[in-house]
Amino acid sequence: MALSVLRSRLVFVKSLHLRPSCRRQYTHGIASESPFKVLFMGRDEFSCLVLKELHSAQDVWDQLVIATQPDQRVGRRGSQLSISPLKILGESLGFPVHTIPHTKADFCHWKPPSPFSYEYPSPPSNHLVVTASFGRILPSPLLDLFQSQRRLNVHPSLLPVYRGPAPIQHTIMNGDAETGVCIIQMLKREEGIDAGGVYGSSKLAIQEDADFATLRNKLGIEGGKLLVSVLRDMIAGRASLADQPSSHSASHAHIITSRDSVIDFESMTAEVIVRRHRAFSHQRPLVAHLETGKSIQLHDLAVHPLFASEYLLFAPGAARYDEQAGSLLIRCADDTVLSVSRVKQEGKALVNAKDWWNGVKGLGLVDVDQIQLVGSNDSEH
């Protein structure tokens, strides 16, 4: 979808999203004497969208340097080279692009490019570091090269909700009706991750069928616009910093792991499973297992409108192919039904549900026109 279309669909209300009892605000009246020299650190498409908005606002910066993750070999036996999308975008815009070391240990000693690595008596007020979906915690020596109010992070949630590395995924998984983006002050690790004061936030309504890419794109564009607004306030000396609400209202958005992708048909409804599919199937396909122990990935999921009992699917995980629906129907918790259009069995290619069903029938795995799927593979434990 073109960025101009995404911009036209953004529905947001700028707000600090802080409880009245926690609205302590501090005005940072230190104006920058000139537009900022920005060290911009990120990697993925979210950071690219933020950078595009920043690039367009050339009144807030006079130098922009990019730091990103190095190229990595991925896939089976390192058969594919994964290149940072931010690196590709930065080079296309003509910015200098630098890569950090591969290991976290080496990154702790990494020196940023000039002019940020010079030894000044004190950090210049027009030097600024911005992170957006960077994927690494900045070490203290790096943060010390910048004034405390010149260390910014663009975070895609309404903090303190969903601190951590996967806020967009958890927002969708939990079926939230709204989300947002914050520009916050980066603190040192020992002071708290994603716990810094808020310079500004914007709320965003979530469409019912929103998936990760759709929501990421909207939040990235809005995050970039909000960042530009905050930088203009900083240059004018009118930026204000407000405390986040108390940690009692905070929640953590842990990184998505293989454990999150395993379906438990007894405890998860079809709606819960589909939300997980929309949240992180771009990273990890959802997985179930045959009773033989073989895993199967489930692709192209939807909630089927009828109840499982109407299809004589008597136990959670019971599945059968339905000609009318053109998909595999699986009973889930609360008598709900999951529709699956494509399947990839362990060691085999991705195929449509009908072809897979005919294959397992030929192997004698179907009993009374049903096959039983389970969540975890007990042999793995």
Automatic annotation (TrEMBL):
Matching InterPro entries: Formyl_trans_C, Formyl_transf_N, Formyl_transf_N_sf, Formyl_transferase-like_C_sf, Met-tRNA-FMT_N
GO cellular component, one term: mitochondrion
Protein name stated in the entry: methionyl-tRNA formyltransferase
Cross-referenced CDD domains: FMT_core_Met-tRNA-FMT_N
MF terms in GO: methionyl-tRNA formyltransferase activity
Residue ranges of every copy of the Formyl transferase N-terminal domain listed in the record: 127-231
Organism for this UniProt entry: Amanita muscaria (strain Koide BX008)
Family membership: Belongs to the Fmt family.
Domain Formyl transferase C-terminal: 256-360
Highest taxon of source: Eukaryota
Pfam families reported in the protein's UniProt record: Formyl_trans_C (PF02911), Formyl_trans_N (PF00551)
Keywords assigned: Protein biosynthesis, Transferase
EC number(s) stated in the UniProt entry for this protein: 2.1.2.9
